[in-house]
Amino acid sequence: MQRAIKRVDFAVIENRATALESGAIGRLIDLVKDIGRDLITQTEARGLTTALADELKVKSSLKSKIRTIVHAVLKDAWNLGQEHARREVEKALALTAPETKLLNRDKIVLAAKSLTEQAAELFLEQRSYQIAGDVAENIRKRTVTTIFNGIKNSWPLADMVSRISEDLDSYSIPQLNTIVRTTTFEAINEARYNFFSTPELGGFVEALEYSAILDGRTTDLCRELDGHIHPADSEVWQTYRPPNHFNCRSLLIAVTALDTWQESDAPELLPAEGFFHREKKSLIIDTKKYTQSDL
């Protein structure tokens, strides 16, 4: 852990990530309200019928706005992760004598450029598209559910509109906080993982170490994984690359050719549902199902 403390600016990464999240969440909450207002307008125009379940749609222009916001914050998070990964490799190299340097700055810059042009855009497009679709569909379903409850209970249209607005307000803040925080750290870690394992570094990063923030919110899984070291190309990282649960704040740290290390035993606990084997499912969750350590 001493090498991590010397090389990794944990507080800087977390503070910058928090700032990115706050800006994106505020814009997304405003957009959720816009979507809710549009769905209410559609409801008022069509009247209260059971056909609304199929007729109500979130406009593609509003979905695109969600995607744009998410893409932007994840891109900033990716750049943050890559920037600090580069700095950490440079710090490790600075400790070597000039005649034994394994890399030079040009190779590090080349590695960063290669990543920016390849893995980054693939990740950003896929995740922003998925999240936009998940958020839009969940808002639509929640609105339809409220409408059906209104029809069943003979609520006046004005009451229905009020209840839809209240429901979306209560949903959007905790839900969007969880979505943005989880995917922000996912982008940071994906950038770090791709940078540390890029061929341009010539195998200088031999292994990766799992570093969890240990406090009252740490899950049992991250507490077990903290300090785990496995080769950079190990299959372990295909399953346990953070995030491994909602609101996961863990980071992958480089273990270089200059470090003394030993591989850890295979982890015993599995990632949370939806995070196993990198098969990310919908990030729309029922917050009541999860403990405070997850949220």
Describe the structure.
With 295 residues, the chain is mainly alpha-helical. The C terminus is likely disordered.
Share of helix, binned:
55-70%
SS-based class: mainly alpha
**What shape does the CA trace take?**
elongated
Number of strands: 3
Taken as a percent bin, the fraction of beta residues is 5-15%
Count the helices. How many? 9
What separation lies between the terminal Cα atoms? 26 Å
The rounded Rg comes to 22 Å
Give the low-pLDDT segments.
Answer: 280-295
Give, in spatial order, the strands making up the sheet with the most strands: 2-1-3
Q: Give helix and strand order, one letter per element, not per position.
A: HHHHHHHEHEHE
Largest sheet: 3 strands, antiparallel
Mean pLDDT: 86
Descriptive keywords:
295 residues; mainly alpha; three-stranded antiparallel beta sheet; 61% helix; elongated
Strand and helix map with partners:
Blueprint: H1 2-7, H2 10-46, H3 52-55, H4 60-94, H5 105-117, H6 119-153, H7 157-196, E1 205-211, H8 220-225, E2 229-231, H9 236-240, E3 251-256
Helix pairs in contact: 2-4, 2-6, 2-7, 4-5, 4-6, 4-7, 6-7
What's the short version?
With 295 residues, this protein is mainly α. The protein is built from nine helices and three strands.
